[in-house]
Structures are given as structure tokens and as C-alpha cells.
Amino acid sequence: MAILKIVKYGDPVLRKKTAPVTEITDDIIQLAEDMLETMYAAPGVGLAGPQVGVSLQICVIDVVPEGKRNPIVLINPKVLSGEDKVELEEGCLSFPKIYEKVKRWNKVRVEYVDLKGNLKEVEVEGFLAKAFQHEIDHLNGKVFIDYLPDWKRKLVEKEIRRRKKGKNW
Ligand code: NI
After folding, report:
1. Among 14, 89, 95, 105, which residue's Cα sits nearest to residue 59?
2. Can you name the CATH fold of 12-165?
3. Chain-wide mean pLDDT for the chain?
4. For the range 149-156, what are the long-range contacts, defined as Cβ-Cβ under 8 Å and sequence gap of 24 or more?
């Protein structure tokens, strides 16, 4: 197990569309374990491949890091459908200390492959549904500030530029 370096917004890997995982190799299993360890250490509730510089369709989620651990590893995930929009504040490990309200589905049906190579289809809701959508977006080169109105996104980008200048990003 190893803690990986988390890339911050501005790194082009976060904007790249990821490639599907074609085989669950030992390297993929190791990567998933390292990503979980990195996420717990951060601490965070989700982490996607591009955020550790790996442009592959893999992400990890655990929305209850304080209590009993419930790690979920999603390989090649896809949102099949969504229901009811809800606006909630969110953050991202690639955007330290930035929190913004984002409107997403409250309930989603998601298809993915698990670490054993089984194709799964699940329906999740609430905070977990939000985490699934946020992480799957990362695999498509999309980040949460993309949902903000232009004027708000510009303010966030200005703040990030300011922090980069101060070597605080
Ligand atoms: Ni994120």
C-alpha cells in the first residue's frame, strides 16, 4: 500500500477523457488499494484515477470514512439513469478548501465492473449518489466547478490563480 500524490486543478490530466480498464490485473488491484489508502489519508470520500495521474476508468468511494469502512471500487462505471435533482455543497480533493453548491441527481442507476471482474448494476441515492456522479465525471474530464454559472466559476478560478501565485495550491 502506498499513498499517492493527488493532482490539483490545473493539471491537464484532470481534463483528459480516461481509457477503459480492459483487464483486472494485479496492478489494477494494487492501484485500487493505493487509491483507497490515499483517499482515507486525505481524508476524502471519493477519488478518481486522473486525480492520481492515472488516466483510466477507475474510482474509489467511501462516504462513511468516520465510521465503519465501506470501500467501493468502480471500474468502467456508467450512469444509466437519474431521478430527482438536488442541490448540495460539494468539494474535491483536487480543489482543496473550495466548496460550492452543485445540482445533481438524487438517485442514480449505475453500471460498473467490480474488482473481481463482475458486472454490477446498482441504484444509489443521496450523498452516495452524489459521490458516484462526481467521481464518474472525473473519468470524463469533468470537474464540479463546470456546473457553476460562468461568473461564479470565474471567481473560483481567480481564487485558484491567486493561491497558485502564493504557492498555496
Ligand atoms: Ni473530485
Report:
1. 14
2. Peptide Deformylase (3.90.45)
3. 96
4. 152/100, 156/95, 156/98, 156/100
* Cα 22 to averaged position of ligand 1 atoms, centre (Å): 23
Average the pLDDT over 72-94 and give the result: 97
End-to-end C-alpha distance for the chain, whole angstroms: 26
pLDDT tens, 38-77? Answer: 999 999 999 999 999 999 999 999 998 667 899 999 999 9
Centre of ligand 1 from the C-alpha of residue 143, in Å = 7
SS percent in the chain: helix, strand, coil, step 5: 35, 35, 35
- Distance (angstroms) between ligand 1 centre and the Cα of 85 equals 19
Distance CA 14, CA 94 (A): 9
What is the CA angle 145-15-168, rounded to 5? 60
CA–CA gap between residue 59 and residue 47 (Å, rounded): 6
Do residues 93 and 44 lie in contact, with contact meaning Cβ atoms separated by under 8 Å? yes
Could you tell me the three cell numbers for 28? Answer: 489494477
